[in-house]
Amino acid sequence: MNYFEIGTPHPDDARRFFGALFDWTFGEPSEQSYQMINSEQGGLWDTTGFGAATWAIFYVQVDDVAATVERAESLGATVAVPLVDGGAIEFAHLLDPHGNRFGVWRPNAS
After folding, report:
1. pLDDT of 24-38, one tens digit each?
2. d(CA 4, CA 27)
3. What is the dihedral of CA 30, 31, 32, 34, to 10 degrees?
């Protein structure tokens, strides 16, 4: 596990809360409404553009995102966000058999 992410339709509130609580700093929003937290430790995603979902998850870096998603499904997980190729990275969100969200990711070869 080496990354975390907060998804929220209220990014200003999240920045105020987590910034005050943990002294986190936030970068400028990307075109996808994504802000890095403390340079590269985590991310804050404004979800108002795609359903206004709310989550706080951890990510595990894997060698093969598609194979990990397939294996997770065979163990009872469901896919919350299917594999996304974001250019520099690939990732997916999964729900374990009890509904807990987590992510898997890998950097794409440069």
Report:
1. 999 999 999 999 999
2. 15
3. 10
Q: Tokens for 24, please give them.
A: 């986190």
104: Cα separation from own chain's centroid = 9
Number of neighbours of residue 63 by Cβ within 10 angstroms: 7
Q: In degrees rounded to 5, what are phi and psi of residue 48?
A: -60, -25
pLDDT in tens, 36-86: 999 999 999 999 998 888 999 999 999 999 999 999 999 999 999 999 998
Q: Please check whether residue 38 is in contact with residue 24, taking contact to mean a CB–CB distance below 8 angstroms.
A: yes
pTM for the full model? 0.81
CA distance 11 to 15: 6
